[in-house]
Automatic annotation (TrEMBL):
This is Bis(5'-nucleosyl)-tetraphosphatase PrpE. It comes from the Bacteria. Pfam families: Metallophos. Residues 1-196 form the Calcineurin-like phosphoesterase domain. It comes from Sporosarcina saromensis. The lineage of its organism: Bacteria, Bacillati, Bacillota, Bacilli, Bacillales.
């Protein structure tokens, strides 16, 4: 089975559709269909910050309803889930844009959305394992020794937030270790979460969050070819949002 894994969308629905079509899928039926039977997969964080989180999520719900969804939830997905459950969460870091979209639709649809979103999230795995565990899709990455381990808070935190130290930079961003550098496993790890200008390959890992919502591009990686396919962002460019790593 061949897959096309798409990076962090963050409500950039127009770029998503352009990328899906560039990857060779037909959207005629409303669902992505590829003539070679390829499947789409996602590294998560489909919502928040961008212009069209609601439509992006309706698209993913439709894929899930048809048994087609391969999606590794991210920290933004988790936060929206906690909100959908009625927990008190801070409406910051982009969640406020999704909430504003939901406030603009009829209240009955909004209630329906939150109910549907809870089911969406509860049906997701913590990360996606494909091709006999030769391909792992995990939002912020995963350590080799965590693959196949039973659910734990520790693994969940790593997959959702990455290898955080608990410290923050002066501007408030969390300090994260570069876990990919020490990854020596055989499975390919496809992840996102940290915006980079270009897809970043390190060992058998690739970060495909190329910051579409910050004016970069929306990127997919083809598996098993490990080729990169991108479409340019339609959003304004904020260079300071991108992380650069030493080689
Ligand atoms: Mn994220």
């Amino acid at each position: 089975m061949k897959f096309d894994i798409i990076g962090d969308i963050h409500g950039c629905y127009d770029e998503l559709i352009l990328l899906i079509e560039k990857l060779g899928y037909s959207m005629e039926s409303g669902l992505p269909v590829h003539k070679d039977g390829r499947r789409l997969a996602f590294v998560g964080d489909a919502m928040d910050r961008g212009p069209n989180s609601y439509q992006t999520l309706l698209f993913l719900f439709n894929m899930q309803d048809h048994g087609l969804l391969l999606y590794s939830p991210g920290n933004h997905c988790n936060k929206l889930y906690r909100l959908a459950k009625g927990n008190k969460v801070q409406q910051t870091h982009g969640l406020e844009t999704t909430v504003a979209e939901l406030e603009a639709i009829p209240p009955s649809e909004k209630i329906q959305f939150y109910e549907r979103y809870r089911r969406f999230y509860e049906a997701l795995p913590l990360y996606v394992s494909l091709d006999d565990r030769k391909l792992i899709i995990a939002h912020a990455g995963i350590r080799e020794n965590m693959i196949g381990e039973p659910f734990s808070k520790k693994v969940e935190t790593f997959v959702l937030y990455g290898d955080i130290t608990g410290k923050t930079h002066p501007d408030g961003r969390p300090v994260r270790r570069d876990w990919a550098k020490s990854y020596v496993g055989t499975p390919w790890i496809v992840y996102g979460h940290t915006p980079v200008l270009d897809a970043r390959f390190v060992q058998r890992t690739v970060n495909i969050d190329t910051g579409c919502v910050f004016g970069g591009k929306l990127t997919a990686v083809r598996y098993p070819e490990m080729e990169i396919v991108s479409v340019p962002s339609l959003q304004p460019f904020f260079p300071e949002k991108f992380t650069s790593f030493d080689a």
